[in-house]
Amino acid sequence: QVQLVESGGGMVQAGGSLRLSCAASARTFNLIFTDYSVAWFRQAPGKEREFVAAISRDLQFTKYADSVKGRFTVSRDNARNTMNLRMNSLKPEDTAVYYCAADTTAPAYYVPSSYEFWGQGTQVTVSS
Asked: Which segments of 9-121 are extended strands (E)?
């Protein structure tokens, strides 16, 4: 079982920035982070969970939702078993609970059901 723990959420005014982090660990085996595809999703009240960003195992490819492209940057540090999401020029519509997710396959990186492991989520609130 892989544990994912997010941090870095909070409240910020529109136009501000936040950096989310996600730390991965495993209690009963030696986690090899490069075995996992990882991504960020978010869920606003009353809405379905939606894809935000993903990064490939080898850091060569990143994917973003159109709504965050040019404002958000996803990264991962395979040596430290961590992934980050830098969010700039935040808008009120970015308000949501943000989740990191991981899976050994993730055949469709933008689909929540592709990921087996999820963090508990961290709240991001952007005020106008």
From this structure: 10-13, 18-26, 37-43, 50-55, 62-64, 72-77, 82-87, 96-103, 117-118
For residue range 61-109, what is the model confidence (pLDDT) as tens digits? 999 999 999 999 999 999 999 999 999 999 999 999 999 999 998 888 9
Q: Distances in Å between the alpha carbon of 64 and those of 2, 24, 28, 70?
A: 24, 21, 33, 9
Torsion of CA 30, 118, 21, 23, to 10 degrees: -20
Phi, psi at 3, each rounded to 5°: -105, 135
For the segment 2-56, what is each residue's pLDDT rounded down to a tens digit? Answer: 999 999 999 999 999 999 999 999 988 888 999 999 999 999 999 999 999 999 9
State residue 29's pLDDT score. Answer: 84
**Residue 8 token pair:** 């870095």
* Calpha distance 104→33 (Å, rounded): 9
Whole-angstrom distance, CA of residue 37 vs CA of residue 35: 7
